[in-house]
Amino acid sequence: MEITWWGHATCTVEDSGVRLLTDPVFARRLAHLRRRRGAPPPARAAVADAVLVSHLHADHLHLPSLARLAAGTKLLVPKGAVRAVPGLRRLARLDVVEVEPGDTEKVGPVTVRVVPALHDGRRMPVGPRRSPALGFVVDGRARTYFAGDTGLFDTMAEETGPLDVALLPVGGWGPGLGHHHLDPARAAEALRRLAPASAVPVHYGTYWPIGMDAVRPHEFHSPGDEFVRKAAVSAPGVRVHLLAHGQSVRPEVRR
């Protein structure tokens, strides 16, 4: 079992011979954001058996990045995504499956279970149509939780069940985070509740608004290290893997 962090919320989870890709964003620039750390992922990052899209925001559902996927790749998107994001219809060569919390999908020997997230799942600023924000639990040799983008909510641990690995967002792409996000402190509290064997912090230190390099730079540079410090206090039994862009880890599996 191996996890590779490509930056932002984009990870490859390899388990039982299956490659799963989360929220792929491969661009150097995304609207008003530019990639400030780490080279764009190489071509092999787009190789996947299935792709998990947590919600419709453009830094998670990025159409040009999805267009790089091979024909036939299974693409799990929130229910209502095709209606809300018409550009998905141009990706007809992909196997697009709309899902909502409670659904399960088989990818080879691996089961992907869809769980809720606390986040605004709309495609902004295109209209009022709502789709749920999602998390995913990948159940193979390990049980891996990809939280997507979420705030802390009371039933998080109940929804996921026992975990080996948690991929948790700990920051964002600009100054200021609302309560529907996890900052390092809230992510550390989530880790305490989830109690996995290992964790990998994601969704920080990659994209930042153009022209705002000097605005609260600590919110770009420090969330990973801050999460490590806070997790050591809140969840001392969890091993936290702080990865560089493109770095891989084989985390501990309990079973």
Can you put this structure into words, describing what you see?
It is a single chain. By secondary structure, this protein is of the alpha/beta class. It is globular and about 45 Å long. The protein is 16% helix and 29% strand. The chain has a single domain, classed as Ribonuclease Z/Hydroxyacylglutathione hydrolase-like (Metallo-beta-lactamase, Chain A, 4-Layer Sandwich). The model has no long low-confidence stretch (mean pLDDT 94). It has a seven-stranded mixed sheet with strand order 8-7-6-3-2-1-17, with no helix packed on it. It has a seven-stranded mixed sheet with strand order 9-10-11-12-13-14-16. A three-stranded antiparallel sheet has the order 4-5-15, with no helix packed on it. The chain has six helices and 17 strands.
Short description:
It contains six helices and 17 strands. It has 255 residues and is α/β, with parallel strands linked by helices. The chain has a single domain, classed as Ribonuclease Z/Hydroxyacylglutathione hydrolase-like (Metallo-beta-lactamase, Chain A, 4-Layer Sandwich), CATH 3.60.15.10.
Key attributes of the depicted protein:
255 residues, Metallo-beta-lactamase, Chain A, 6 helices
Helix content class: 10-25%
Major beta sheet, specifics?
7 strands, mixed
Question: What is the H level of CATH, i.e. the homologous superfamily?
Answer: Ribonuclease Z/Hydroxyacylglutathione hydrolase-like
Write down the oligomeric state. Answer: single chain
**Count of helical regions:** 6
Residue-averaged pLDDT, rounded? 94
Largest sheet strand order: 8-7-6-3-2-1-17
| Number of structural domains | 1
CATH topology heading: Metallo-beta-lactamase, Chain A
Strand content: 25-35%
The ordered string of helix (H) and strand (E) elements is EEEEEEHEHEEEEEHEHEEHHEE
Rg, Å, rounded: 17 Å
What are the low-pLDDT stretches, counting only 5+ consecutive residues below 50?
Answer: none
Q: Please write the CATH class name.
A: Alpha Beta
* End-to-end Cα distance: 12 Å
Supply the CATH architecture. 4-Layer Sandwich
* Derived structural class: alpha/beta
**Cα shape:** globular
